[in-house]
Amino acid sequence: MQMISLAFMAFLIATGVALLFTPLVIRWASRQGIFDHPSSRRVHVKSIPRAGGVALLVAFLAAYSISIAFAEDGGSSLFLQKEQLCFFLGALLIFGVGLWDDIKGLSPWIKLIAQIFVALLVGIGGNNVELLSVGLYEGVFLSSGISLFITVFWIVLLINAINLIDGLDGLAAGVCLFVSFTLLVLCFSSDNLTVILGFSALAGACLGFLRYNFNPATVFMGDCGSYLLGYLLAVLTIQGAMKSHATVALLIPIIALGVPLLDTLLAPVRRFVLGKKMFLADQSHIHHLLLKLGYSQRKVVVIIYGVTVALGVVALAFVFVKDQLSAYVLVIPGVMVFLGVRKLGYLEYIAADKVLGWLRDITDEAGLSNERRSFLNLQMQIMKSGNMEELWHNVTLAIEKLDFDLAELHFDKENAQLFGSGGNVMTWQRVRSEKEFDFNEHCQFKLEMPLMQDQDTNYGILWLIKDLKRSNMSHYTLRRVEHLRRTTIGVLNRFAGK
Fold this sequence. Notes:
It is a single chain. The protein folds into two domains: 2-263 and 277-335, no CATH class; 368-495, Beta-Lactamase, CATH 3.30.450.40. Helix content is 61%, strand content 8%. It contains 18 helices and eight strands. It has a four-stranded antiparallel beta sheet, covered by helices on one side. Strand 7 and strand 8 form a beta hairpin. The chain starts with a helix and ends with a helix.
């Protein structure tokens, strides 16, 4: 009973402090000029004070500290434990990194290094993922190295997950509120007082802050707020899993945090596939895609709230349904997630034809495909040519392999005499039974390629023509043609004694 009372007290204190302190932060940020200005990747149209994370930090620390101080059996001594000291220090450090980024700006790599440093500090301080379990099963104990790696990965992942989803008014704070409630319910089945009070204080801080952050927002939490919320969720779930893996296993917060985690994992995949920088901000996150579908900001936030609540219910059901069929609880949300991802267009990035085409390009570039190796063999024959007639014969074999219809090599008189060719023009034409090739036909693909080594060395022009009515071009034709041009220039340089 005392645990419930303390949790309720922590929730009320955090809510009250956030309600009272956030207006002070708004005025302070306005005086200091700490604003989030409109830009091409922002959805707001006016400058809004940021760094609202200051209010979240004060509300959480006040509620968490006061409620622990009121605990019986020397609850205040918990502050002196190494795990708690590292927990508080990590919170202050990650908050400071975010606040510095809000005020001065930091490069993505500096922020990532700082996040990893904080996660290492917390992990070395005793807040480790010691047991990797899957809901109702016993799980596997981890070695110290693997434990520290998973701990660091989990903390960095959640920090960036909350940061990425913080793109609409009230979205990040609301998601953290509902996730905190879900994990709080799960924690009541254990005796881990600090985790219960931590989630209570976190939920209260988010609720009080939402009074000013929900659409239309008068303050943004900034990176200092999103970093702090992600950090608190990550470390509190680790502390809960340390004491009771059956109720707060990492699978449970993964389910509850489904929306931000999915967005975080898809973002780098999307940017990699599209050839963008991994840390380059864009407008292709889940909330942006929902906005593009025509929903208002409020509707998008409410939709994601609803999905988060639904996933929270799934997480609770997964734990409290005690029979072996509980795993099937994941089937319905799994199908819903797949349909949602498909609806938002993410599957377009990993469509079978695009993936296969990408793999074909890789194998061709690496010289693993049969076509590339066959053409490489023709290039080798060209390089071994001993005179102009032999060179042209080998070049025409390569041109025929590329499925062109006509090829002409035009020399000026000086080069024709230098290479000992029979004339100024050397011609090859695919055998055509119906008629000679007509330069004026439509649907012809024509290439004019100067055989230039540099500005002072130009041997002539290689003409290539292909009738697209007869057959389409290969994906790699232009790449092969460039290889052919460079190989031919190399042989001509040898003939010319260069």
